[in-house]
Amino acid sequence: MRAAEDLNPLIPHVSEIVIGLVVFGILFFLIVKFVAPNFEKAYADRTKAIEGGISAAETKQAEADARLAELEKQLADARHEAARIREEAREQGAQIVAEMREQANREAERIKENGKATIEAERQQAVTSLRAEVGTLATALAGRIVGESLEDDERANRVVDRFLADLEDLETSRQAAPGVNGGAV
Question: What pTM does this model have?
Fold first, then answer.
């Protein structure tokens, strides 16, 4: 019965323990010698790749930030330039408007002066024509009143000249006294 006590399934045999320890030692040696360095190498490579990727990403981000800052500066400069150009255009527009107004004023003054000159010439022509007609009527009327013919040129000229001189004196006296008949002839 002792043999039955010697074979306890819960307690391993010494030979199994020794074989298990030798196999465990060989496996441990193989893992430490071949497998662990490959894992360490893969881990180091992966770490380097990640760090390189992070470094490259940081470099790219820095370049992108610098490019963005440069573009923002260019945009701000373009906005300032556009504002300056708009302001210059406003100033030039105001200057052109002022020049055009001045030119229009000069042209209006020239037209006024031409109009005044034309009116004065027409007035002089009308006065001359009126004087000739008045002279003819005065000669005819004077001939009827006097009862003799004033067909004689010299006599007619004297009568007309005297009549016109009297009219001019009357006009001059009216202009000298503006209260009488409003100064109008």
Answer: 0.39
